Amino acid sequence: MIQKLVSIVKNKYYLTLVVFFVWMMFLDRNDFTSQYEYRQKLSQIHKDQQYYKEEIIKVKKDLKELSTDPEQLEKFAREKYLMKRDGEDIFVIVPEEEK
C-alpha cells in the first residue's frame, strides 16, 4: 500500500498535474477568489445598470412634463431650486437628526 502511494507521488506526470492544479486554483491571476470577486462586481454592475435605466425613464418623463406644462415647470422650480416670485418669502424646514 505504501509502496503504491510512493510510486504515485514519484510519478512525474502526476506530480506535474498536481502542481498545475494548485497553481491554477490558488496562484494564478485568474484563481477562484478572483473569479468570485469578478462575478460579484458584475452582479453589482448589472444592478446599477437596471437602476440607471429606471432613472433615465423617470427623468425623460419629467422632462416631457416640464416642457409641455408651464405649471409643472413652476412647481419643479419652486420645489427643487427654491425659486420664488417677487414679494414672496420661502421658509425651509429641515428636520433635526437624531443622535
From TrEMBL:
The lineage of its organism: Bacteria, Pseudomonadati, Bacteroidota, Sphingobacteriia, Sphingobacteriales. The chain crosses the membrane at residues 12-27. It holds the Pfam family DivIC. It comes from Solitalea canadensis (strain ATCC 29591 / DSM 3403 / JCM 21819 / LMG 8368 / NBRC 15130 / NCIMB 12057 / USAM 9D) (Flexibacter canadensis). This is Septum formation initiator. Keywords: Membrane, Transmembrane, Transmembrane helix.
